[in-house]
What we know:
- The structure is a single chain.
- This protein is of the alpha+beta class.
- It has one domain (3-178): Gcn5-related N-acetyltransferase (GNAT) (Aminopeptidase), CATH 3.40.630.
- The protein is built from four helices and seven strands; from the N terminus they run βααβββαβαββ.
- It has helices spanning 22-35, 47-59, 112-123, 142-150; strands at residues 9-16, 64-71, 76-86, 96-103, 131-137, 154-165, 168-178.
- A seven-stranded mixed sheet has the order 1-2-3-4-5-7-6, sandwiched between helices.
- The longest helix is centred in the N-terminal third of the chain and has 14 residues, at 22-35.
- 26% of the residues are buried.
- This is N-acetyltransferase family protein.
Amino acid sequence: MHGSHSDEVRQIVVDDATVDDLDAVAEIYAHYVQHTVATFDYVVPTLEQWHAKHAAITAAGRPFVVARAFDESVTEQTVGYAYLGTFRGMPAYDRSTEDSIYVRPGFGGRGVGSALMAGMLDRANPENVRQIVAVIAATGGDGSIALHSRFGFTEAGRLRAIGHKAGQWIDCVYMQKDIWESRDR
């Protein structure tokens, strides 16, 4: 990881993710799988799985974005990603999505999550998205809950002891945003 530049971030730019970004996306997510309970995955997805996920999300007309940070020497580094994935697989849920936002370790608290959220929401198409659901591990999830609250998500409920990882039972907080209510239709 390139943590040496984290104190010198001068600019954050959010772009649509391309296949060239997926190595960095995979690296960022691998950290969360291996070292946190932020995701309930136990196995790090392969790069091929990331390619398939990116293709499916973009084919569905949903946003998949990356945040790039530039330091004072204009060196670029991918410092996070966000996308709107599938909430549930049944057809009645087609306009409901689940968001995922991950920030490279060492870059938390620098506005990366907010930039990603804003970029993702700006690209959400009300023609194919109405509801965005966030499923947040309550253990260590205070920052994510605060981020979602700042962007108009409200708590929809909590599932207690729903996941087991790292030797502990973890609650999930569900948050929800109706983008039809927050935009002029």
